[in-house]
Amino acid sequence: MNAITGIATSGLRAASTGLQATAHNLANLATPDATRQSVALSASATGGVSATVVETPADPAAPVEDVAAMLTYKVMAGANLFVLKVADETLGSLLDIRA
To answer: What is the top-level taxon of the source organism (predicted)?
Structure first.
């Protein structure tokens, strides 16, 4: 169970990082010298995912891409929360059986 919760937790952290980066981009649309951010996701050697914020060049379609990315990260967070909930319920059921 520990591996499952670790993987889901890393996915939740990655989704949070992605939401922060897209929120940064949308909040700074009117700021002329603000840099755009994106998130590079990579598989972790121990399981799960790691997220790194990287600077991205300016793009006229960026606001549309940021909104789409925000929706994607929202779904990603929800899926990882669901995995954590199921893992918690499963562990609870196993403890009930053993008691």
So the answer is: Bacteria
